[in-house]
Amino acid sequence: MKKSSFFLVSFLLVIWMLPVVCFGGEIFLNYSEESVSSGDLEEYRHSFETSFGKSKEDIRNPSEKLSGLLKSLEWLRDESDPEKILREIQKIVNSLKYLPEAVDHWSTIGQTIDSGGGDCDEFAVAKAVLVEIFLPDAKIFLVQGFKSISDDNHIVVIVRVEKEVFVLDNDRDELVIADDCDYLIPYLAIDVRSENFFILSPEKQPASLLAEYEGK
Predict the structure, then answer these.
(1) How does pLDDT run across 1-47, given as a tens digit for each residue?
(2) What share of the chain is helix, strand, coil (3-state, %, to 5)?
(3) How do residues 116-155 score in pLDDT, each as one tens digit?
């Protein structure tokens, strides 16, 4: 991910004095949340629409490799344990090869499966697509932030099912409970279902705060 994107977001935070809004119906404590119209972050909007949006077309008309993957996960439709579903999605997507990109580009799930891998963007999009299919009631967010130990940009998937909040990260083999996620400082989130964009002011607080929903 490009650091220039962070400075764009930071600039927008300075010039926008919009009221704090609900994030997916509930707020993340200790983060300033600004509702961002689709046109204000054109780069992110384009990336989201050309990856997650077009991934829906991939699901409707899957390639041979994607079709095989989806068939291998059909048993999840009968699984009642959300955490087990998330662990399986985490495992199967993380089994793909990490392929760093010279130029930042968010691929669709079909492109990622057919190529055999991708970087954190591709892993996150693929996981979000699968979570939407197999956990239709879950709240799903693509969250971008800085790794606290390296200052590198990174994207993960945050999933809330009932009162549990999980992090699906290609840098971690296991599913991460949000309370234990203290290595990412988030600054941008995309609500996958509503397609709303939110700026999260990076106040140097651990991402475990993502679990601290108001009213939890």
Answers:
(1) 554 554 444 434 332 322 222 333 333 434 445 666 656 677 888 88
(2) 40, 25, 35
(3) 999 999 999 999 999 999 999 999 999 888 777 776 788 9
Give the CATH architecture of domain 3-211: Roll (3.10)
Taking Cα atoms as reference points, which of 56, 54, 92, 86 lies closest to residue 72?
Answer: 92
User: Hey, what are 92's tokens?
Assistant: 């199967």
Neighbours of 73 (CB within 10 A): 17
List beta partners, residue 153. 146
Encode 191-202 in three state secondary structure. Answer: ECCCCEEEEECC
The answer, as to whether pTM is greater than 0.85, is no
Tokens 């057919």, residue located:
114
Rounded alpha-carbon distances, angstroms, from residue 104 to 114, 147, 173: 18, 18, 24
Contacts of 181 (CB under 8 A, 6+ apart): 167, 169, 206, 207, 208, 210
Domain boundaries, the chain: 3-211
